[in-house]
Amino acid sequence: MNKVYKKKYYDTVQIIKRAGLSVTEPRCLLLSFLHKKKYPLTIQKIANGLKNHKINQVTIYRIIDIFKHAGVVREINLHGERSRYEIADSKHNRHHIVCTRCHKLENFIGCDYQKLKKNALNRSRYFSKITGHSFELYGLCNKCMKTLSTFQ
Ligand SMILES: [Zn+2]
Ligand SMILES: [Zn+2]
Predict the structure, then answer these.
(1) CA 20 to 30 Å from 45, out of 39, 118, 125, 131?
(2) What is the rounded distance in angstroms from the CA atom of residue 83 to the CA atom of residue 15?
């Protein structure tokens, strides 16, 4: 990887290194793409976004798989939908409210992570360390609420 890339994708390079993975250009491009996105994306959407960089879908699948196992990205599974992926940062700005009907997503801020973590560890028989979390709330978006109420 050349110097210009290393500088441009500095944060991403650090994340990949910290995960103990080797730093390659496609990995950096993919991760910085996810970093910029507020919402989790399907493989297809990621492939579309990286089209100009000539990274094909097979490569994306492979990188996502490696990232997933290294805890760099998180897989989000919504009912009956294709898996979506997002960067697994430790901030709390990637929690979602999901519409159970149309799968619309909205981020929400504020989860009592420290308290939840403590409670979970206190009650756990098999874990002594929590390293991350993902948080989804489910509901009905305004549009779906409206549609449903006109049916009744
Ligand atoms: Zn949180
Ligand atoms: Zn909806």
Answers:
(1) 131
(2) 22
Question: 21 φ, ψ to 5°?
Answer: -105, 160
Q: At what angle do helices 57-70 and 25-36 cross, to 10 degrees?
A: 80
* CA–centroid distance, residue 28 to ligand 2 (Å): 34
pLDDT digits (tens, 9 = 90+) for 25-79: 999 999 999 998 888 999 999 999 998 888 889 999 999 999 999 989 989 887 7
- Give the fold, CATH level 3, of 92-152: Dna Ligase; domain 1 (3.30.1490)
Q: How far is the CA of 109 from the centre of ligand 1 (A)?
A: 8
How far is ligand 2, taken at its centre, from the CA of residue 147, in Å?
A: 9
- CATH number, domain 1-88, options 1.10.275.10, 2.30.30.100, 3.40.50.300, 1.10.10.10: 1.10.10.10
> 44: CA distance to ligand 2 center in Å?
22
| pLDDT(98) > 80 | yes
Give the pLDDT confidence score for residue 90 in this predicted structure.
66
What's the pLDDT score for residue 48?
93
Nearest bound ligand to CA 115? 1
Q: How far apart are CA 44 and CA 129, in angstroms?
A: 34
Looking at the CA of 98, name the nearest ligand. Answer: 2
